[in-house]
Amino acid sequence: GHTESLSQDYANPFSLSDNAVYSILCDNDDNVWIGTYFGGVNLYSSASARIKYYAPGNQPGQLGGKAVRQMAEDSPQRLWIATEDGGLNLLDRTSDNISRVNISGMSSDNIHSLIIDNHRNLWIGTFMGGLTRYNLDTHDAYTYDRHNSPLAENNIFALCTDRDSDLWIGTTKGLYHYDNASQQIEPIHKQ
């Protein structure tokens, strides 16, 4: 193997858009998606050894938000992009179009965690807005927060699924577990 370094180079249009790498996703096609803190999303294809840049902006088709916190792939042609400053985006790789996604019940565009479970639920953890479960097939959404669940706060910073498709939820007030069978959240306490 070999080591390769990618960095921002203003003279090279195929370099990283920003050196502050905030998130990384390796997709099913062996591409590497690089979310940056101030520069949107970069797609690195090892086959071409070039970087394609998806710029943030306010126009339709542009990425909403510069700080790309997490990404998740729900099919080979669809990439969900969560930003801390512009909410949720969906990249359709067939058309190369980015659209901003507004989900009913989500009260925060400051997204810190994102994951898709085996039941095709997109879980969205926000800062100050709780945890939203969005089904990719039915488009049903439900937001768990400190008022309607055992969550002690509405800041969700980390998400992970296990082999049973249960969800583990990391907050600044501890760890929680979502049981898929009962659809309930419970705090994890020391024994």
Your description of this structure?
There is one protein chain. With 191 residues, the chain is mainly beta. A four-stranded antiparallel sheet has the order 1-2-3-4, with no helix packed on it. Strands 5-6-7-8 form a four-stranded antiparallel sheet, with no helix packed on it. The termini are far apart. It has strands at 21-26, 31-36, 41-45, 50-54, 68-75, 78-83, 87-92, 97-101, 111-116, 121-126, 131-135, 141-144, 156-161, 167-171, 174-179, 184-187. The chain contains no helices and 16 strands. The model has no long low-confidence stretch (mean pLDDT 93).
**Straight-line N-to-C gap:** 45 Å
Strands, count: 16
The global form is globular
Order of helices and strands: EEEEEEEEEEEEEEEE
Q: Radius of gyration from the CA trace? A: 17 Å
Strand content: over 45%
Structural class: mainly beta
> Strand order within the widest sheet?
1-2-3-4
Tally of separate helices: 0
Residue stretches low in confidence (pLDDT < 50, at least 5 long) are none
Instruction: Give the overall average pLDDT.
Output: 93
Task: Looking at this protein, list some descriptive labels.
191 residues, mainly beta, four-stranded antiparallel sheet
What's the SSE blueprint?
Blueprint: E1 21-26, E2 31-36, E3 41-45, E4 50-54, E5 68-75, E6 78-83, E7 87-92, E8 97-101, E9 111-116, E10 121-126, E11 131-135, E12 141-144, E13 156-161, E14 167-171, E15 174-179, E16 184-187
Antiparallel strand pairs: 1-2, 2-3, 3-4, 5-6, 6-7, 7-8, 9-10, 10-11, 11-12, 13-14, 14-15, 15-16
